[in-house]
Write a structure and sequence with these properties.
The chain is mostly helical and 165 residues long. The chain has eight helices and no strands.
Length: 165
């Protein structure tokens, strides 16, 4: 967030290594989330998506609802980078619905809200308003576990027909 993603990645890799050595999972999940953001900033979306999904797997174990909400936003941006605007819209809708289970969406943070709004705008641009709204509404019907499954790619084909846009 200080525009030094390469330096952040090095520090976060050290953090993940120490957490792994010591069997610490909760902090590791946040380090992987932050590393995904750094990697995305450096244009390495595939690595970023892999780390964000691993962060979600760990957060699911702890039922870290706040952390899950943060990571879902990153996953939505990353799948959008890969041309999956329908999936991104569904993730954003599900994320928005699930944020409400514990407080203000995006913690009412100007930084997180700006990123969320940019992602929504890009989804609308790629899909059109009607298709985006339909995908967003479909996402809002997902519970937290279904949201995680969708984000990490554990849904069956029937549940995740997201075409690349």
């Amino acid at each position: 967030m200080q525009n030094e993603p390469a330096e952040a990645e090095v520090l976060l890799q050290d953090c993940v290594a120490v957490c792994t050595q010591r069997g610490e999972l909760w902090l590791r999940s946040y380090a992987m989330y932050a590393m995904a953001m750094a990697q995305q900033a450096m244009g390495r979306s595939a690595e970023a998506l892999q780390n964000a999904r691993e962060s979600l797997r760990l957060k699911r174990y702890f039922h870290d609802v706040l952390g899950i909400g943060l990571v879902i936003e990153v996953v939505a941006r990353l799948v959008l980078d890969q041309g999956q605007a329908d999936l991104a819209s569904r993730l954003l809708g599900a994320g928005q619905q699930n944020w409400r289970s514990f407080g203000m969406p995006q913690m009412n943070s100007p930084f997180f809200n700006a990123e969320h709004d940019r992602c929504i705008k890009e989804c609308r641009k790629l899909l059109g308003d009607e298709a985006h709204e339909a995908a967003f509404a479909a996402g809002k019907r997902l519970n937290l576990e279904e949201l995680i499954e969708l984000a990490i790619g554990e849904c069956g084909e029937d549940a995740d027909p997201a075409p690349a846009v």
